[in-house]
Amino acid sequence: xxxxxxxxxxxxxxxxxxxxxxxxxxxxxxxxxxxxxxxxxxxxxxxxxxxxxxxxxxxxxxxxxxxxxxxxxxxxxxxxxxxxx
Length: 85
Fold this sequence. Notes:
Elements: H1 10-20, H2 25-55, H3 60-64, E1 71-73, E2 79-81
Antiparallel strand pairs: 1-2
């Protein structure tokens, strides 16, 4: 963890804290950094999935067809939809 002195936009910080549900500047900034990183990772993954669909390497209709899911039985006898495991 590093310590850095910076000037912050107090209104933007307060708005971010409200959106994120944080109470301290430190938590707000750290949470915002994690959130933006996760957001861009998801956007990249979505872009890659779109490319796969465009190339025909991924069929979204198959993925969305829940009748194709095979139930799997756990040790407790409860059946979950998903991959074999």
